[in-house]
Amino acid sequence: MDTLTPSSTVPLLRAEAVTRQGPHHPVNQDSHFADPACGLFTVADGMGGHRDGDLASRTTVEAVSRLAGLPASGHDMQLIALESAVAQVSSGLFAEYLAAPEQDVSGTTSLSLVISGPYASCVWAGDSRLYLLRQQHLFLISEDHADAAGRLTCAVGIDESIDFGRRTLERMPGDVFILCTDGLLKGMDETMLANMAAEGTYGLADRLIARSVAGGSNDDITVITVWAEPHDQAR
């Protein structure tokens, strides 16, 4: 199986990961994983209103995390391995639903960032998001799999197959990546997100969640921020 591993081609990355359970939720349905040494980061948001969203998100993130630290492969093969791991989880969840449809589906969003060499790739299903702050401008890299009413059109566990979104870009010095579940944008807008990201990287994940909560978000929120150290600091 093609997997991910630390490599000399992976830049010296820094990351901060923070999650916060919604005050009215019995469990946090978000899950996450961050491994700067392997250049692998992922968030998942269990589907509210359905069965075992927390289990679906946790199972998906655990499958992705098992790719870290195993034999290396090229960037494209890493993405294939990632999609395969998540697709296997999705097939298993949907098979459970088919076996007992009266128990409802168990689904989750999934969004992962893979960084190796000069490339950064995003693979996703659902409406968790990847943003890129580049030269003081904020870009949305992922594209929500949702209809006009906000209902998910693609996610892990809700159909026989899964049609991933995937985007690859070349990194530039100073890039900052922000992975987040949809709870973050329920208490702030993208303009505020961009302004806060431009203020500094360290502590950004905590600051974003605090601002979203202050802005009224009652949802589970997970944020991972990722950036490469300048060469003079990396040494």
From TrEMBL:
PROSITE patterns: PPM_2 (PS51746)
Pfam families per UniProt: PP2C_2
Stretches assigned to the PPM-type phosphatase domain: 14-228
InterPro entries: PPM-type-like_dom_sf, PPM-type_phosphatase-like_dom
Protein name according to UniProt: Protein phosphatase 2C domain-containing protein
Organism per entry: Roseibium sediminicola
High-level lineage: Bacteria, Pseudomonadati, Pseudomonadota, Alphaproteobacteria, Hyphomicrobiales
